[in-house]
Amino acid sequence: MKKIAPSILSADFSRLGEDVKMIDEAGAEYVHIDVMDGMFVPNISFGLPVIKAIRNVTERVFDVHLMIEDPGRYIDEFADAGADIITVHYEATVHLHRVVQQIKNRGLKAGVSLNPSTPVMLLKDIIKDLDLVLIMSVNPGFGGQSFIEGAKDKVIELVELRDKYNKELLIEIDGGVKEANIGEISCWGVDVFVAGSEVFKADNPAEKIKRLKEIVNA
Ligand code: DX5
Ligand code: ZN
């Protein structure tokens, strides 16, 4: 079963608890949590106390996407805050193998994300150690941007690596995912679909989540 991961970056932060409950009740398996440090990306979002607070309102999988420099400094803190999956950026992590082990040693799933300009092949030697690879289909930092078409070839290349080295690997896509393109993206072999503005700008966000889930599992 393919999964929808609504991104709370586009939620209403003044009533975040209710929005997270809505995600849960609509049947989304993951809550996508975008942490930004104003260094790795040109935006600051939210951090540990916010994750701890929303951990009380749902048992859904917390899919924490760290857009921060040198994420190895904070793996224990994000694990303690309630993360289930921690995804770090290839471009922000000098000792990627060590950080992946840090995440797994906490009993969590480990993901690595690639910016649009970072080649998939760079993951070849670590892919067997990963639970998830997140392909960015926008430049990270903001919700509401348009899907970069080059992501298609990257997903296709990653599917080949998955077939060869790690059949359990989850492929996630993040940025510019809409009702209009999610069906096509699903055909490429993606397992987890992040959607921020498409969900939270909808007249009925819960219905939108259900619709996206139907399309990818059709
Ligand atoms: C961007 C974030 C995304 C963002 C996606 O840096 O990683 O998760 O919330 O937003 P949309 O779906 O609006 O492109
Ligand atoms: Zn994200």
UniProtKB/TrEMBL annotation:
Q: Which residues bind substrate?
A: S7, H65, G141, F142, G143, G144, D174, G175, G176, G196, S197
Top enzyme class: isomerase
- Spans traversing the lipid bilayer: none
Catalyses: D-ribulose 5-phosphate = D-xylulose 5-phosphate
Task: State the EC number(s).
Answer: 5.1.3.1
Which InterPro entries does the record associate with it? Aldolase_TIM (IPR013785), Ribul_P_3_epim (IPR026019), Ribul_P_3_epim-like (IPR000056), RibuloseP-bd_barrel (IPR011060)
How does the cofactor attach, per the note?
Binds 1 divalent metal cation per subunit.
* Active site positions, chain numbering: D34 (proton acceptor), D174 (proton donor)
Q: Cofactors per UniProt?
A: a divalent metal cation; Fe(2+); Co(2+); Zn(2+)
Q: What biological processes does GO assign it?
A: pentose catabolic process; pentose-phosphate shunt
- Is Metal-binding one of the keywords UniProt gives this record? yes
- Give, as in the UniProt entry, the pathway in which the protein acts: Carbohydrate degradation
Matching entries from PROSITE patterns are given as: RIBUL_P_3_EPIMER_1, RIBUL_P_3_EPIMER_2
The record's keywords, sorted A to Z, are:
Carbohydrate metabolism, Cobalt, Isomerase, Manganese, Metal-binding, Zinc
CDD domains with a match to the protein in the record: RPE (cd00429)
Gene Ontology terms, MF aspect: D-ribulose-phosphate 3-epimerase activity; metal ion binding
According to its UniProt record, which protein family does this protein belong to?
Answer: Belongs to the ribulose-phosphate 3-epimerase family.
> What HAMAP family does UniProt report for this protein, alphabetically?
RPE
Give the protein's function.
Answer: Catalyzes the reversible epimerization of D-ribulose 5-phosphate to D-xylulose 5-phosphate.
List the protein's name. Ribulose-phosphate 3-epimerase
Species: Dethiosulfatibacter aminovorans DSM 17477
